[in-house]
DDHD2 Phospholipase
Amino acid sequence: MSAQGPPPAGAEPPEAEAEAGGRYEPVGPHWFWCKVTDSRERWVPFSAQDSRRLEEAHGAGKEQEDVVVPTSGGRYDVQLRRRRRVAVYWEEEAAEVRRCTWFYKGDKDNKFIPYSESFSEELEEAYMIAVTLGEWKKKLESPNREVIILHNPKLMVHYHPVASSDDWVSTPTEQGRPRTVKRGVENIAVEIPSGEPLQIDHLVFVVHGIGPACDIRFRSIVQCVNDFRNVSLSMLQAHFKKAQEQQQVGRVEFLPVNWHSSLHSTGVDVDLERITLPSINRLRHFINDTILDVFFYNSSTYCQTIVDTVASEMNRLHRLFLQRNPHFKGGVSIAGHSLGSLILFDLLTNQKADPEEEEHCAQGSRTASSTGGTEGVKEILKKLELSEYCDVFEKEKMDRQALFLCTEKNLKEMGIPLGPRMKILHYISSRTETKDQSSAAPGHRERGAEPESPSQPRDSSEDVRNCQYRDVALGQVSANYPQLNYKPTIFFAFGSPIGMFLTVRGVKRIDPNYSLPTCKGFFNIYHPFDPVAYRIEPMIVPDLEFEPMLLPHHKGRKRMHLELKEGLTRMSVDLKNNLLGSLRVAWQSFTRSPVPALEAASTEAEGEAEAGPEKQPDTKAEEPPAAVKEESPLINVGRLNGGNRIDYVLQEKPIESFNEYLFALQGHLCYWESEDTVLLVLKEIYQTQGITLDQPLPGSQ
């Protein structure tokens, strides 16, 4: 039978043509693969693009050559001859593939199920004879005594025998409820995706957190990343339509990185099983399989296994991806959820920058030191209210370091009077800086070097606040952190406990001048009710209280319940202020004694003056929180994200706002299907390529 593509959209169905003119038209095949979940089979159609490529390879007779056809954006290969679909980047059970033309559906079936290819050919041959000769009501019996009757092009039924083993019962035609039979994929209710763009602009590796399950439905990292990728494709169509039309944008590829299975294949599960108590078995098994991953990561033995697995897996995936996509010129970013984000952060803090970059940074530091030393002295003199002596220090080429080496004799020789001299000497003596420690960026000390002592003598709390930055690598488990084969463009952390772990390790502050050695972008994204998530920015700017950036809704506005809440808050503030003002006026009118009009006027003015400052704090106290304000003031949060904001908070859904405790777990597992999270990731990735959203979202940076 000759192969032919499916009929064009809007064309008359083959059945209608057959009934009208008696002409036979070959059926248009579509390729499906079998998805098995909990021993239940479900046939899933390939995209129109993939099915067309498979049919072309089939029609060209390439089955004999055992040809492999890449599908699903290159993440799966179809072995055409063996009719198998196999995963490329991760381990997965091979799935059966079928070239489908005829389908059936029973009363208990939710979707149409394709017949085998051989039986479909028999049905197609019987259909062709019926159409050509005009002889309908043909019976076709399958090898297992199931009967299909072709009444006419629009009515074809399949009888499934109930007691086929008994020859004395009634014929199979009379038993059981008939199944509906359909010819051609266009006659069954199935959604066929068009396919993914071939052009890949960026690659993102996604590392999971604790346990084998990554969401509330206990799905694997592969399934969750599939959802994340599908959401990204819909967000690209919705928010990068102009760039897509101009062929500037293709898609972003997301690949999962699994470390849990490698960790638990070391034999540790057997050791744990030996010591686990028999009571509350399911709960103990769940704890052993999930919660203990946090303790494994804090063990030097298993931490080494985890970081080796994550780094080697990302390097392997990167090499394999480049082999399969030799023309790829885009960048690579990494994303981590929960504990996975901490693993990536520790890996990134221990990456080594290129020698050229280190030399460039060192030269920049020396240049800044030579040009900024005098400025440092000017700042000190200004602080001591001695700005008039700046020219004297500049003439002597006195920098900050030289100033702290000065003695009274040196200052006297420079012509500094006794009073200013005493101020400068007191300032020097109250500081114990032998080196300008505020210029030492954390994370760059050699591994094994002695960390700065927390008990170092400090005579001033200002020094402790402004000059002491603990190494972000302080307290990390002693491990040999592998190097990545690439420099990540951006690091995305979802529901991340990085801030908490740094604090527990003894890192109270992060130097504003610190950035990850090989990655210049860092975004900490979290749900407001996520119990595992912590902020990063307060560790960089501890003296200033400010809210995180509110992540804009992907439809370009705040969620309705947040707008309503904000509106009601403003309304209650206005109502309260008006009510208080009316009560004050009424009270003053009751308590005011009869005095001349002039005195009454002055008393009223005094009352208003007293009432003024009272109103202000009330209004201020009832203002909506800054987290829901659309415009945030510019805040310098250091170089960890290139000077841009780091903490981004999602907007909770209306139902989640009723009880934050009830949705706490869901808040930690919501990122995989969050359009707002995906849109921020896409926005930041494409911004590095100079491509922006069709319309900027309100409140976005």
User: Anything to note?
Assistant: The chain has a mean pLDDT of 80. DSSP finds 23 helices and 19 strands in the chain.
